[in-house]
Write a structure and sequence with these properties.
The complex is a heterodimer of chains A (about 350) and B (about 280).
Chain A (H helix, E strand, L loop, with lengths): L1 H16 L4 E7 L5 H11 L2 E7 L2 H10 L7 E2 L3 H9 L3 E2 L29 E13 L23 E3 L3 H11 L9 H12 L5 E4 L5 H5 L5 E5 H10 L3 E4 L6 E7 L1 E2 L5 H11 L2 H11 L6 H5 L3 H4 L8 H6 L1 E2 L7 H13 L2
Parallel strand pairs in A: 1-2, 1-3, 6-7, 6-8, 10-12
Antiparallel strand pairs in A: 4-11, 5-8, 5-9, 5-10
Helix pairs in contact in A: 5-6, 6-14
Chain B lengths: L1 H33 L16 H4 L4 H34 L5 H9 L6 H12 L4 H8 L13 H26 L2 H9 L4 H30 L1 H7 L7 H10 L4 H29 L5
Chain lengths: ~350, ~280
Amino acid sequence: MKRLIFAILLCLLASSAFAKEVVYVYNWSEYIPEQVLSNFEKETGIKVIYTTYDSNEVMYSKVKVLGGKGYDVIFPSTYYVNRMQKEGLLTPLNRKLLPNFKNMDTSLLNKEYDMGNKYSVPYLWGSTSLAINSDFVDAKKANTYRILWDSKYKGKVILTDDLREVFHIALRILGYSGNETDPEKIKKAYELLRKLRPNVRVYNSDSPKVPFINGEVTLGLTFNGEMYAAAQENPSIKYIYPKEGAIFWVDSMCIPKGSKNVANAHKFINYIMKPEVAKMISEEVGYPSPNKAGVALLDKSVRTNPTIYPPLSIIKQGEFQLDVGDAIKVYEKYWNMLKSGK
Amino acid sequence: MTEKNRFKTFSITLISVWLILLVLVPTLMVLAVSLMTSNTPGEISPVFTLNNYKAIRDPLFLQVLADSFEMAFVTTALCLLIGYPFAYNLSKYRGKFKSLLLVLIIIPFWTSSLIRTYAIIIIIKTNGVLNGALMALGIIDEPLRLMYTETAVLVGMVYSLLPFMILPLYAVLEKLDGKLIEAAKDLGAGRMRTFWHVVLPLSMPGVIAGSMLVFLPTLCLFYISDVLGGAKSLLIGNFIRNQFLLTRNWPMGAAASMILTVIMFVIIYIYYRSTKKTGGEAI
């Protein structure tokens, strides 16, 4: 027994003595090609310890509970950057260590959630908007989210399982901002969404392309990357930017406050910003890259596909999500009512 | 003797420490948090309040609770309806396939239940195996709409939990004294009467144990309703998760899960009392 303990201790000592440089990366699931990680390890000799999450809420709770320790690179979405920064959970980035920052598309920098990109660098971005199967839905009438309410489509509508996005479209139809915090306006959006209930077949944020391809739904609110993939299998599936504007989001790379490998984290972020790496990520994951030099390397058919890379006018028409602070409680109350009502 | 005693002390201490550290302490922590105040999302201030429990009287929460119980009740009833005849026949079966039949009940546990839930999709989706077969046989002209309905949720729940109903029922029915049934027959009871007055009362401990093993998990298996039901209904499990992750009102989430714990305790207590009354033993 004693000998066994001694052996274990020896192993532990040995592994820490010969420990290589490491970087703890905590990313969304299925959001990076395996090859990017192994290439980074080969090039820098830094070992990547990679773990994944499937929602901002889970990532945020873990980082918060650990007091910002335990991870070196995290990928919060849009307004989570702003929330985590306000709560002192992020380390400012050292731009000198990130020479590849020059490759980034300036139209995706300097957003309200992090002016001057002091704490974050965009990783991938995308949109949530209307999608239809043109075999069943008239594409000419699909220039507004209102089409989802049409009684023709009873039990044929898909929505994301995300209360902010679902309320966003109702708020926009009513002419408000998707980041509304006024309880009265949120209530009006709820009343509008109640009328949508008979049409809703499924709420799905994991893999919304599946019900589309399987023919369970024919229209709905969903993500551009998913619909790009769905259109490869069924060309009738179309992604549309309606007049009320799409919802845009950016997933950013940040360094949490308690990171123990800040230098390695910068190396990792800088590596991701290499044009050829950005290209590989965007191609494999299917979402647009904020890396201008990387996008230039992409095949023309992808680069000019409006589902993935919408023109600037479309982006301007849309809206980025912001933190709504305490109003999230109001949203949550109505969301629960929406889902529990008979 | 001392060796045996030492073993006894060791195993009891191990289990006690395990239960105290991993069940009692966390439960007490949840209880403590449920009595605190949350002013800003994600923050807990140690100010005593009962407001979190008062908020439970909100008709919304009661609706969620009622929906969850309804789902659990229907699932349990269906499992009993399907599981009892199976367990009864299995206990009467004397052929060579008996152990094989038992193994077949357990085999599904070799795969994660989440994966099995996704597998159900392949069968019941609009252009899936079931609709394909029924249409090929000319039984239906148009595909059945099963996916993302309450029927789909029930199919998933019953499928996942049926073994928990069958196994305790089988254990009780297997031990059933055949002489009692013979005696009932000798005294002129018909098959139905024998069942109602002899077999069913004697198998009640199994019925209750099986029902509990099905009822309680159903309250928490929200992923089945999310995956097969299209996340359209809010069950108590979803509600608690939303409190912790979405609104980050930990005290409220803790209060909701304490209420669930209390309800489970009550059900277990009723079970305990009923097994005492029927004279049966706990499984």
